[in-house]
Amino acid sequence: MSDAVHLHTHAPCGLHCLHIDGLAVRRGDHTIVHDVSLHAHCGELTVLIGRNGAGKSTIMRAIVGELPHEGRISFSGHDGAPAPRMPRCGYVPQSLALDPGSPATVRDMWYSFTSRLPVFLPRRRRTVENMMAELARFGAEDLADKQIGQLSGGERQRVLLALATSQKPDLLLLDEPVSGIDNEGLQDFYTLVDRLRSQDMLVLLISHDLRFVRTHADRVVLIENGTVAAAGKPEDVFRTAEFAAVFPEAAEGGVSG
Amino acid sequence: MNELFAFWQYDFMRTAFFAVLLIMPLFSILGTMVVNNGMSFFSDALGHSALTGVGIGVLLGLSDFQWPMILFALLFALLMNRIRHSAMSSTDTVIGVFSSCGVALGLVLLSGSGSFQNYQGLLIGDILSIGEADLLPLGIALVAVVVLWGLCFNKFLAVSISPTLAKVHGVAVWLYDRLFVAAIAIVVMLAIRWVGLLIINAMLILPAAAARNVARSMKSYHGLSLVFGVFSGVLGLLLSFYNDVATGPMIVLVAAAVFFGTLLIGRKK
């Protein structure tokens, strides 16, 4: 995966930077996430790491608007200019409960999210070819006529990735699948994420694969107890005491090479 | 063969036949998303609110209860939908409470005005009593639902698959959610007089539920739901005519038979 060298030579785009200031998510009296501030840039891969339950997925769900939150989430253009339009988002949740009995196929799901013409009506050949090409990028072209409720964890992830990236999003949010996906599937997932970096988008990833993070992330944000414990380049974050406290095994040289 | 078409010489049977051809497609189409969204209890509770709608109509001294029924059902449905989403207690409890209130309030209003006996027909309905003029609102509703499906179906499906993903893809989830609920409320209230409060939900749910047992895509889901709905409607009407039994329940029995048949076929796959 040496494509990544193109990373910082991207052409200027309209939506450059994601700013999160003082994000907090509460459920009743319980504070799940608090005082989270982070910036991420277009063409960069920013990875959230931390223990299970630290609040990583909650932050992502707040960004996509699934959870009510306090604080500011905003976008700016180049040189801090206001964003010229609403950013397009792509989101692959950690898990998505799809109705196992639904007759909807991957094709139906695809058209429902990407077109107006009712999914049960015939399409132009070009529309079908475009969908197939997008699915093929993630090795999911054979899944077009499979019912969405029958997809395995890995298959669902590939379909959701294809759907999320097909809309040329400005911001791609990927919550690493931790269940329902085998090791091989996980490797595929990271290969795909790596490929996406060469495209002109801001990728925010939640990952538990520290080896991958070490070698591929541009910025790492360590989340602990619902807030940012450390942030910066991977080599800097991996050297902090906060990192050692959360990942003692990794800090003792496991992934430092 | 001539005996099979004997019903055609009766005006009321011809009108009922056309009513079935309007009501069953209407229900078959809407039913696909009711079943897909797991809203069969919701639509059932909605039907029960018809009693209150009639009660309000009586209270106001109106001669036609259609409008108070529709307006109350809309209010009832949107309120129930709101509480369903706020998840303060479990969905089936909330819907059960609404359903009970819809019936109880209606019965209190009607018994208070001493007119419950006059409206018992609402419980069972009578499709054979439908007049030609009554076909018009059903026809308009069918056209409206087809247009709604043409314009909004993909949004309904996206919201049904995942509200979060739909939102990320720019779908106004709250709007389509309410639009769908409102559509069910209006259609149920337009048809309830003819098919009855007790079985209207079965007619709404069964064709789609049967289709879902065997459908392999949204296209076959809709196609089969329409076929099963119209088939059950027409066969049920004829069976009731030749055996001299109530029409609505007969249609439901045929639809239920289709459901169990498809359940067996679907299991084998």
Describe this structure in words.
Chain A has 257 residues and is of the alpha/beta class. Chain A has two domains: 12-98 and 171-254, Rossmann fold, CATH 3.40.50.300; 99-150, no CATH class. Helix content of chain A is 32%, strand content 24%. Chain A has helices spanning 56-63, 106-114, 125-136, 153-166, 183-196, 210-216, 234-237, 241-246, 248-254, and strands spanning 17-27, 30-41, 45-50, 70-76, 89-92, 171-175, 202-206, 219-224, 227-232. In chain A, a hairpin with a 2-residue loop joins β1 and β2. Chain A is globular, with a radius of gyration of 19 Å. The model of chain A is unreliable at 1-12 (pLDDT under 50). Chain B is mostly helical and 269 residues long. In chain B, 80% of the residues lie in helices and 0% in strands. Chain B contains twelve helices and no strands. Chain B has helices at 11-36, 40-48, 50-59, 66-86, 91-112, 121-124, 132-161, 163-168, 173-195, 200-214, 218-243, 247-268. In chain B, α3 crosses α4 (66-86), α4 packs antiparallel against α5 (91-112) and α7 (132-161) packs antiparallel against α9. Chain B is globular and about 60 Å long. The two termini of chain B are 37 Å apart. In chain B, 48% of the residues are buried. Classes of the chains: A alpha/beta (257), B mainly alpha (269).
